[in-house]
């Protein structure tokens, strides 16, 4: 809306100024004798200027000037000039028939001459607007790029600071936990064991992986045991029952890949048992627990369906859920890609 209003204000001001100067010059030289002829030419000239200016800006220049087809541009301009001259000549004949003898008809040659000044005004305006439009567009693009570079610079700085913070804080807490563990040994074996488990979990979360982003399976199992141990604190039912079948040595796994199943079992079950079966080309995790009374089985199924949608074909080969409604025993079987 603002753009249209600005265009209207410009054209009203421009045409009023140009036409006032033109009328004054005509009166000054006493050549304003035929008002119908004069104002017709004035009106037609103004309409031609407006229509041709927008035609050049929106159609001709984008197609020919942008692609540097200068000969085609000259040919199109000449064709428009000739076509408009013939069109004005035909309108002159029509008005002559309506207003004869008040109206002085122009010959085709006079139409060519009459159109010459408005046409060059059109070219002047169109080229000026086109250059200004290009300059404004380049300035806007430059401003946008500067803003994007500034945002990228801020983002990079923020990421760097966050990375430094993430490097400092975990190591600081890990070292502090080790110190607390050393101080707590003489006072309480259970308390020191809790601190040691938490410290080992934190060390596991901040350690660097190998080139394939994997870690030894033994480390992941140790993390799982510590998680189950800490989760069972304050409860009379231990959750540390982890059975390993097969040789875990030299087997590697994506870190934290067992955690969704482990944390889910602590959330939904009691008397949790994990069985890890090592086969030649795969690792099978069997999780068995008694469902908590307050939970509905369908909500548990929905939870494991979400895990399945995210993990299967990426990290898991398959995941299945078996539930016995009489014993309330739920068994989760996960086949892990290895």
Cα distance spanning the termini: 63 Å
Helix content class: 55-70%
The biggest beta sheet, please? 5 strands, mixed
Rg result: 42 Å
Structure description:
- This protein is an alpha+beta fold.
- The protein has two domains: 2-151, no CATH class; 208-337, 2-Layer Sandwich (Heat Shock Protein 90).
- The protein is 66% helix and 14% strand.
- The protein is built from eight helices and seven strands.
- The chain has helices spanning 2-28, 35-65, 70-99, 108-184, 189-206, 217-231, 259-268, 297-311; strands at 215-216, 241-245, 252-253, 269-278, 282-291, 316-324, 329-337.
- The longest helix has 77 residues, at 108-184.
- It is rod-shaped.
- The model has no long low-confidence stretch (mean pLDDT 76).
List the helices and strands and how they pair.
Layout: H1 2-28, H2 35-65, H3 70-99, H4 108-184, H5 189-206, E1 215-216, H6 217-231, E2 241-245, E3 252-253, H7 259-268, E4 269-278, E5 282-291, H8 297-311, E6 316-324, E7 329-337
Parallel strand pairs: 2-4
Antiparallel strand pairs: 1-3, 4-5, 5-7, 6-7
Helix pairs in contact: 2-3, 2-4, 3-4, 4-5, 5-6, 6-7
């Amino acid at each position: 809306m603002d753009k249209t209003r600005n265009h209207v204000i410009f054209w009203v001001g421009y045409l009023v100024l140009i036409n006032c100067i033109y009328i004054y010059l005509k009166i000054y030289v006493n050549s304003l004798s035929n008002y119908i002829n004069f104002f017709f030419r004035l009106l037609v000239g103004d309409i031609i200027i407006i229509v041709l200016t927008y035609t050049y800006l929106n159609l001709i220049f984008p197609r020919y000037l942008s692609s540097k087809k200068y000969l085609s541009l000259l040919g199109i301009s000449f064709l428009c000039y000739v076509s408009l001259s013939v069109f004005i000549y035909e309108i002159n004949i029509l008005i002559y028939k309506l207003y004869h003898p008040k109206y002085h008809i122009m010959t085709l040659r006079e139409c060519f001459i009459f159109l010459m000044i408005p046409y060059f005004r059109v070219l002047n305006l169109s080229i000026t607007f086109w250059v200004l439009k290009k300059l404004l567009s380049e300035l806007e693009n430059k401003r946008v790029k500067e803003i994007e570079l500034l945002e990228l610079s801020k983002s990079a700085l923020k990421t760097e600071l966050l990375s430094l913070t993430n490097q400092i804080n975990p190591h600081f807490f890990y070292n502090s936990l080790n110190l607390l563990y050393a101080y707590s040994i003489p006072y309480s074996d259970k308390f020191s064991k809790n601190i040691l488990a938490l410290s080992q979990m934190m060390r596991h979360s901040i350690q660097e992986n190998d080139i394939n982003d994997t870690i030894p399976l033994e480390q992941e199992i140790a993390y799982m045991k510590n998680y189950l141990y800490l989760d069972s604190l304050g409860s009379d039912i231990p959750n540390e029952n982890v059975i390993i079948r097969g040789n875990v040595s030299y087997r590697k796994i994506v870190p934290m890949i067992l955690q969704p199943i482990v944390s889910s079992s602590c959330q939904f079950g009691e008397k949790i048992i994990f069985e890890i079966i090592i086969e030649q080309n795969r690792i099978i995790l069997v999780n068995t627990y008694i469902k908590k009374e307050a939970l509905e089985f369908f909500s548990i199924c929905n939870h494991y369906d979400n895990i399945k949608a995210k993990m299967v074909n990426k990290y898991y080969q398959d995941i299945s859920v078996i539930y016995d409604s009489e014993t309330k025993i739920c068994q989760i079987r996960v086949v892990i890609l290895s």
